[in-house]
Structure prediction request, 545 residues.
Amino acid sequence: MRVVLIHPNYHSGGAEIAGNWPPAWVAYIAGSLKAAGFDDVHFIDAMTNDLMDTEIAARLQELQPDVVGTTAITPSIYKAERILEIAKQVVPDALGILGGVHATFMFKQVLSEAPWVDVIVRGEGEEIIVELIRAVDEGRYFQDRRRIKGLAFRDGEEIVATQAASTVKDLDGITPDWSLLEWEKYIYVPLNTRVAIPNMARGCPFTCSFCSQWKFWRDYRVRDPKAVVDEIETLVNEHGVGFFILADEEPTINKRKFTEFCNELIARGLPDKVKWGINTRVTDIMRDRNDLWLWRKAGLVHVSLGTEAAAQMKLDLFNKETKVAENREAIRLLREADIFTEAQFIVGLDNETEETLEETYRFAREWNPDLANWSMYTPWPFTPLFQELGDKVEVFDFEKYNFVTPIMKPKAMDRATLLDRVMHNYRRFYMIKALFHYPWRGTGFRRKYLLGCLRAFAKAGFARTFYDLGKVGYWGPQSKEKVDFHFDGERQIAEAQMADWEAMADRKVKAAERKAAVRAQVKAKKAELAELQAGARACGGGEQG
Prediction:
């Protein structure tokens, strides 16, 4: 049983400016398959190697797999679908499997627009894929597929979704196979060293309205910190990794385990060999202000903060549960602990104006983080906010849902103006940093890291890959009228997916009506009981004064 896993060749001008990122999903899926006895697993990294369709086809022709598997976040979905279309042409008898967050929630859309996708793995894939491959290997896939949890597929004209599989309870039982990856190609540009993306936990207890993590991973689970450090030690010693980013949305939620993790890194002497970064919430920085020295001692050098917005009304819209003043304080605390800070701003909502964009710049200068990012608001099609936006969403070309393309058009400006004003913020912020901050702040590692960040921005800017500027034809304010985002207007929500959304909305309405009816019944019962008690008192059962 030969399995070939392929990472889609999708590029945008966002996180890639910092380097090439190793696709961790391959290691976790391959590790689970090999632990189950399926050793013939191959990997094609079409993204890092920038492989064209013909090259992917040639590799598949050479390998002749029984199964071809790929994954996709929303912007890479068409590339992933194309991989399985190529596979169907080159190795027609191979089973084409698609996983990932987009297909998990949008399986009716995917199976409608890409009928060559044989089966979708919904949710965490490590346990589902083993059961699926075992069924294929034993020749019983087609007769048993309706009984395998966590799948979606077409059966004739019917789109079938089997019962959801449970989440992986024993995360420490997964042994990733990192050997499949081409480590010499995964370089973190600011430090010019190999980079990895292990995870410490899955899930998120928060329900930010624009995010999908809490929906995909469902329950929040934290690994044994010693097991995580075991994995990191392997990455450092066997694969030469010098920098890692924890893949968790917020690894600091569980303070006790995060502290254990830091102490374990220190006990093994790893901070001398590897530095690392995290994403986290402002509230955790405020809570753990007295522990930041420990984080830094453990090798943590970079914290990306979900400040999200400079205006409190935006924070409230996103359910961020933070205050604007806390953003500034968190950045100050991290700076004092010698940890580099990156402030994230979400822009491009319906109520965005040139004045609100200018406000984010003023806050970025006032808070003085080491880095600042302005990300275009991207309404994932399976999040609550997308449903609430309704007909305000005009673009259904999911390839552009990449945080750098303005999917939403604010009322007060067109998309090209929005892009131009965001670039105006970037130019001013990083010009000041390049002239007066990065070359002069500190010595040794601090200076090296800051100059490395500047090098990453300069490299992406020179290559016109930053923010996809080369693709859309933006060269500055003078080119604003010629900007073209190349939206594919033919892309629409499939009827099956729309019907599913409408049914879901109808269920929510009916559930709300049932709750209201129950509340009304309880209220009526209470009123009836009060009336009976009042009648009893009137008949002599009450107290006499």
Remarks:
- The longest strand covers residues 300-308.
- The chain has two domains: 3-161, 186-422.
